[in-house]
Amino acid sequence: MIEKSLKVLVVEDNPGDVLLVQEMLRSASEDRIQLFSVNRISRAGGLLDEMSVDAILLDLGLPDSNGLETLRNIHEVCEETPIIVLSSQEDEQLAVTALQVGAQDFLVKGTFNGHILIRSIFYAIKRKEMDSKLFYMAYHDPLTGLSNRKHFHEHLLHSIAWSERAAQKFAVIFFDLDNFKKINDTYGHLAGDHLLRQVSDRIRRVVRKVDTVARMGGDEFAIILNNLANFSYVAHMARKIRKYLCRPYTVESTLLEIDFSMGISLYPLDGRSESDLVRKADRAMYQAKASGAKRFHFYNNEMDDRETSRQNVRADFKNAIKNNELCLHYQPIISLRTHEIMSVEALVRWRHPRRGFLFPGDFLTEIMGTELIVSLGDFVFESVFSCLSRWKSQGILIPVSVNVDLMQMKQPDFYKKILRLMARYPDVPPHLLEIEILETTSAEDFPNLREVLDSLHGLGVSLSIDDFGTGYSSLSYLKKIPFDTLKIDQSFVISMLENRENLAIIESISSLARIFGRNVVAEGMEKMSYSPMLMAMGCEMAQGYAISKPLPPEEFIDWRSLWLERDHSEGVLPGSNIAELSILLTQISHLSWIQKIISMAEKVDDSFSSIPEEEGLERSPVEGWYSNEGVSLYGDIPTFERLSSTHRESVDLVREVFRRIREKNKNATRYYSRHLLLQKDSLLALYGALQKDALFHSIMRGKLEKA
Ligand code: C2E
Ligand code: MG
Ligand code: MG
Asked: Mean per-residue pLDDT for 74-85?
């Protein structure tokens, strides 16, 4: 019956009983059982730490432990080892409970012989093996072999109990793969499975033995980092895990780059209960995802506050439409060349009974993804049609553009609703309606997007892509979407004079629109002085505070009357381009750099605590222009040489400023920064002169070439 030699431990305080068991086993097993014995539960623990045994024979009444407690204690030390209870009393109830607590068999002393005992040991071992297999299946994920959700929860309960007793800390990390669905859709489910297995293998390799890793379902994983000496280790581990997991994967012989969103909660900082820790890690993960910053997020209380505020906003918004608290303001979009009003954009406002006048930024994200955004959309369309009809009756025909949320457009009756409105307002020509969708509205999230947009186009409704430049549109996306206008996101326009990259973005969006033969609108034009520059870059329309803030409909009509009365001849520019854009761009970058240094130097206090952290600020951003493009285009113009040496002087002055800051010499810092200030004026004059000279040169060159 026994093929190999077995090690059995008997835990028994009565030496006579130990001898008896020894005798029985020896005669019945022909010495194939090696017996070890201890007489205290505490000693059993010590022995089992040093060696493993195949089975344990356990007396429940020991000097340091009694009854079922004895069984629980030993079971905790060696979960995997089969246990046979040797009881001195015949007690059916005790026997059943012992089996429930984890024993494999229950024998009453004096009622068994050697053969029965050996059979019991053998069956106990087999039963334990089966149990372990079943346990494994019930608690592990078949695909990856990691713990499953159920097992994770048990581990978590265990970590809580243990950490409470040992006054220890631990962390819970939740994470999932960004865009896993896309991978499944593109490469098929087998490839998806293959990827999940690779991810699991990497996590297993990166964590320690004491940690728990689980697959919670789909592409969601969880880790428990146990026994933490301090919480800074968690950030270190999170970074390390991200680093390992973000390395490329080979799936279907394609290299895939994958990113992960991670949320972390900490015991006991964020909670002491299982539900708290899970909820908070989960929320932090969604926060990480929403921020798009591709990193991990620790849970913070603000997230709960935000959740409460979201619930409140939603509850209030339900009544807002009914109680007539919403209204629309209208902001004009004009032609920069002619100052003609091309259209107006309808922007929602909320007169909140308690919170006062609210802008979309105060409530829109809270209602996104819910039915409320659809109700808002219905309200907006209704108001816009009624307004268009009213204006039409006053002889005013201005197109109105409406911001439409993707969820709104996904409604099966979206198109029908618009048809119904058109039928109810037959006086409103359909071409007066424009629709704005965000650049981030993707055709992948909504396969019927194209169809819906085509139908709207068919009606004469035109389409703008809003906040362009903030998403990741590809040319093929633009080819798929039947748009009429690109609206450049205001973030690029507002700071276009301080940032050369923003200018380049505006320029390239404008030329993109030109390639497609579409219009382009600059949003956020806060100064009229941006106008020539925008036009030079090919952007012919603008919207912004410099023209008008969004206004209630009646005020907009008053504004319009005044606007029409104004003499716009000054603003109307011929179709000229700024001759030398390259010089102007350099001027902007150079002067804004100097301005930054001056403001920094002026802020320096006695403690020198406000030293700048902006990387590379000490280097001139236009150095490269002077040594390459500048010299090759304008090297033969004398003004360029003067400008170039003034640029070098400014570089030297900046270096001095930084040197004095490092020496913590406030007066000297200020001295050099004031020098810089003086130099700004001469730079401005020189840049202007170079522009004129360059223009003159290019005209002369043209003449010479003609001659
Ligand atoms: P948007 O569609 O890009 O609208 C332009 C936003 O820029 C408006 O903000 C407008 O007031 C603001 N703006 C205009 N000119 C300037 C300027 O010169 N400087 C600055 N700093 N800002 C300027 P608002 O009204 O707060 O709306 C914010 C966003 O909320 C809108 O951005 C739009 O995406 C969304 N939104 C507004 N109304 C609705 C609506 O009825 N439905 C939906 N789904 N979204 C809406
Ligand atoms: Mg808009
Ligand atoms: Mg916008």
From this structure: 90
